[in-house]
Design goal:
This protein has about 725 residues and is an alpha+beta fold. It has 23 helices and twelve strands. The strands form three sheets. Strands 6, 7, 8, 9, 10 and 11 form a six-stranded antiparallel sheet that branches. It has a four-stranded antiparallel sheet with strand order 2-3-1-4, sandwiched between helices. A two-stranded parallel ribbon has the order 5-12. Helix 1 crosses helix 11. The longest helix is centred in the C-terminal third of the chain and has 35 residues. It is elongated and about 90 Å long.
Length: about 725
């Protein structure tokens, strides 16, 4: 692989105009395609194989008016303390607001609280439910403003929730992360041109990748978070991959190679590591499809595609741009070879001189950080997890005060019977009323064909409460088959709970697949059994510590003020399984770039301790810069107003910190020093069977012209 990539790098360097023209053409085509084909992203969510999803699909067939997917809103009216909404003046104010809402563009119907009997027992709070005739993503800002204006009721408090209510505006946190990345690149490379190349290639790759993904929205419904997560991961890895190759290119030129040969050698060595690291990320993300949740598959495939584009650009466009940059990519402070890794060498010597206390301290620290993960609670954010001060949270709290917390997470029972569906549904409704944890049961509603009935159930507990989960399970256990009738539980609350259960069940199998993949790939690369074992153990420590940090911040509320985030009390149920795939890829990045140099030195006859020191010495500067860049890019997304994006940004930033600085830069050299020569042991029979991979550290065996002439050949 190194030989092939070396030839690719040298070709792209020399034929730079052709390569630049090809990528420019791809950029134009993908951007044009996105402009012509992209559609707004609806927040559709399906979980195949669960009871709630099967019941929801049945609803779409038997009760299309109840499962249209169109936008909805809940308008909550509250009278001042000591007053009632049944007073003539207040009632008239509410009815005028309802009449104005009916006239709002695209509103299909409004259920008045006085005709639907949705006025609280004390008369202080009322609920008007609004149904639109278009999906949420088709509503404009003017439509949302019109709803807010129409709902005003002088003398009363009015709050709103639902997908028709305007979502918070996104921040520009990713721009802050890119700015920090630019500073780190400038400090690391010492040249404006060299620092600008990773940013330029990252921007081109992201635009191409996201444009291509956006264009697919004409054929596939994408989640609204798909592009944000693809941007987050694609931007970080694109900058890092380019940094690794540029750093190796500059080192080769300073060691006497011509720029063309240096570009080829850097692409063959560092580029091989980029290919390996990128493939591990792509495989781990694409593997999310096995969980069989469409949204998760979309997120994984979109992010994997942007990573693939980043790898291709690093291997082809970057060498071409190095050719265009010429001497300008080499300007800056030049350090003699024997002084380039002084700080990293000192750190490596310290670690290898005190391996036991360093190892114990680092592992203990990661285990302490992982402790909060024992309290991990999965779910999907709703209006009850919205930040205080938002109208969605205020509406949620008012409804809970007036009608009980269960009003915010009603359940829907779908009843079918071969004969007498109405009678069967009435029996089910009567039986459910007597269950513990049930606040109210609505009368059954039959579809026009009379073969399916709906029974609305309002729990006594909040949607995310454990008691609500217990109630759903109790209904399923008791009424799955009632006198020949089949009963299924659905509704958003049931779907959320079923999704969390399915993801929790898939977590360990997926983790086993990822760990097994890591062990096999690392065995091939490092020709060792203990090095892969140590690497996968370090990966598990990184994941555990990251889960702990996420629980502490987003579930327990630690550091919410300084970080500017809001603790919802639950963790987005998609996060753990996606985080495993992403952290796996990140961990393999740093593992490859550090340990391949250790392997190279050991293969040349160096003592294992000296090899570990040399690996840290030569990799510390670049890995540190790459980690800081990744942390900055991911942390920028913490400034988002979307809880899912916010938590992913924080989780990935924490994962990079734990894995790069504690696991790879600290635990790895300590373990290598303790293992000694045993760390590189591989049974002879296995060594003969396994294919040899030439990753970074194995120079491409082709003639190289050495000289001091900086011009490209």
């Amino acid at each position: 692989m190194a030989v092939f990539l070396s030839r690719v790098g040298r070709f792209c360097f020399r034929r730079r105009r052709l390569i630049a023209l090809i990528w420019a053409g791809l950029l134009v085509v993908t951007v044009s395609g996105a402009a012509a084909l992209s559609e707004p992203a609806p927040d559709t969510f399906a979980v195949p194989g669960t009871e709630s999803q099967r019941a929801n699909d049945l609803l779409k067939d038997r009760f299309p008016q109840a499962a249209t997917g169109d936008a909805t809103a809940r308008v909550v009216f509250a009278a001042p303390a000591g007053r009632s909404l049944t007073e003539p003046a207040n009632r008239a104010s509410v009815e005028r607001a309802v009449a104005r809402i009916k006239a709002v563009p695209d509103v299909a119907d409004v259920a008045s609280p006085y005709t639907r009997n949705t006025v609280s027992g004390d008369g202080r709070i009322a609920l008007a439910e609004v149904a639109y005739r278009v999906p949420e993503h088709e509503l404009t800002g003017a439509d949302r403003d019109a709803l807010r204006a129409a709902a005003s009721a002088p003398g009363l408090r009015v709050e709103m929730s639902g997908d028709a209510v305007a979502s918070p505006e996104e921040g520009a946190g990713e721009l802050l992360g890119v700015a920090v990345a630019a500073i780190v690149l400038l400090v690391t490379l010492g040249s404006l041109v060299a620092a600008g190349l990773p940013l330029l290639t990252a921007i081109i790759g992201i635009v191409i990748g996201l444009s291509a993904v956006s264009a697919t929205s004409a054929f596939v419904e994408l989640s609204s978070d798909t592009l944000a997560l693809a941007l987050m991961l694609g931007l970080a890895v694109a900058i890092d991959y380019a940094l690794f190759i540029i750093a190796r290119y500059r080192q080769e030129v300073l060691d006497g190679r011509t720029p063309a040969d240096a570009a080829g050698h850097a692409t063959g060595t560092a580029g091989s590591a980029v290919v390996f690291a990128g493939l591990t990320v792509i495989i781990a993300l694409a593997g999310l499809a096995v969980v069989d949740i469409p949204v998760l598959t979309q997120l994984g495939l979109a992010a994997a595609f942007t990573v693939a584009v980043a790898v291709l650009i690093a291997l082809t466009l970057l060498p071409a741009l190095l050719g265009f940059a010429g001497r300008r990519a080499l300007t800056g402070r030049r350090t003699p070879r024997n002084q380039r890794a002084t700080a990293g060498r000192r750190w490596g010597r310290f670690i290898t001189a005190h391996p036991v206390p360093v190892l114990v301290t680092a592992v203990a620290g990661l285990l302490v950080a992982a402790t909060p993960a024992l309290d991990l609670r999965l779910g999907l954010p709703d209006d009850g997890t919205a930040p205080s001060g938002t109208t969605q949270r205020a509406a949620y709290d008012l409804l809970a005060d007036g009608f009980g917390p269960g009003i915010n997470g009603p359940l829907t029972l779908v009843v079918q019977a071969p004969h007498g569906t109405k009678a069967a549904a009435e029996r089910v409704a009567k039986s459910v009323t007597s269950l513990d944890g049930v606040a109210a049961v609505e009368p059954p509603v039959l579809n026009p064909a009379g073969d399916t009935a709906l029974v609305g159930v309002v729990p006594a507990s909040a949607p995310t409460a454990t008691a609500t989960e217990d109630l759903i399970q109790d209904i399923r256990d008791r009424f799955r088959s009632e006198d020949g009738a089949t009963v299924a539980v659905t509704g958003q609350t049931a779907i959320d709970i079923d999704t969390s259960d399915k993801l929790a069940g898939a977590l360990l199998p997926y983790l086993a697949v990822v760990v097994g993949l890591a062990f096999i790939l690392l065995t091939l690369v490092f020709r060792s059994l203990l090095v892969p074992l140590k690497a996968t153990a370090g990966f598990l420590l990184s994941v555990a510590a990251t889960f702990g940090a996420v629980v502490a911040v987003f579930q327990w509320g630690w550091l919410n003020g300084p970080l500017g985030v809001h603790a919802s009390g639950i963790i987005v149920n998609l996060l753990p399984i996606m985080l495993i795939g992403m952290v796996f890829g990140i961990a393999m990045d740093y593992q490859v770039f550090l340990v391949t140099r250790m392997r190279e030195e050991h293969a040349r006859g160096a003592d294992p301790v000296d090899a570990a020191v040399t690996g840290v010495a030569h990799g510390a500067r670049v890995v540190t810069a790459a980690a800081i860049i990744m942390i900055a890019v991911f942390a920028g997304f913490v400034l988002s107003e979307t809880p899912m994006v916010q938590s992913f940004g924080f989780a990935l930033a924490a994962a990079v910190f734990f894995d790069a600085f504690i696991v790879r830069m600290t635990i790895v050299p300590a373990v290598m020093a303790l293992l000694g020569r045993a760390g590189w042991w591989l049974p002879a029979r296995l060594d003969r069977v396994l294919p040899h991979l030439d990753v970074e550290g194995a120079p491409p065996p082709e003639p190289v012209t050495v000289g001091s002439t900086p011009e490209a050949r």
